[in-house]
Design goal:
With 162 residues, the protein is an alpha+beta fold. Helix content is 62%, strand content 10%. It binds zinc ion.
Length: 162
């Protein structure tokens, strides 16, 4: 499939399944919101992709810093980092996996802190939703599963000292 977009020079292929996460996010907020349900639900659907985007940018930056840059993003149910070269050091594996995790955590904390300072209730709700989305991405990406960053980090940590 030909890439559709480019993020910091990295080609991004977007699949139809990429709509699922935004729709799910909108549905969850529609079920939880007690007021302004339609507005908040649509906003949550759109905001989800900004959380995905921040996570991917974290990976792009950290993979370049680790000297093992990301080759592409395959955006289906979630944005999967594509690396052609898997023959990199444990430190480089960890370096490129850490960027997304750190970006999601920093964004979640910054947005949560910002939400506390805003007096407009609607703006505060939006910031809280965005913070929760970044926080969710942070937690999911740290799970010890092969498909996510946590799996890569935990598998390579013991190899650092070999
Ligand atoms: Zn990630």
């Amino acid at each position: 499939m030909r890439p559709h977009l480019s993020l910091l020079g990295v080609p991004v292929t977007v699949r139809p399944t990429a709509t699922a996460a935004g729709l799910l996010s909108a549905l969850v907020v529609a079920l939880l919101a007690r007021e302004r349900r339609a507005t908040l639900s649509v906003a949550a659907g759109v905001l989800w992709y900004t959380a995905d985007c921040a996570h991917v940018v974290g990976h792009i930056v950290s993979s370049q810093a680790a000297g093992a840059p990301m080759d592409a993003v395959d955006f289906g149910l979630y944005p999967m980092s594509v690396y052609v070269d898997h023959d990199v050091s444990p430190g480089q594996h960890i370096g490129r996996a850490c960027g997304g995790v750190v970006a999601s955590l920093v964004a979640a904390l910054a947005l949560a802190a910002l939400a506390r300072t805003v007096s407009n209730p609607q703006a505060r709700r939006l910031l809280t939703i965005a913070a929760a989305q970044h926080g969710l991405l942070f937690m999911v990406s740290l799970l010890p599963l092969r498909l996510v960053d946590g799996g890569v980090i935990y598998a390579n940590l013991p190899r650092l000292w070999r």
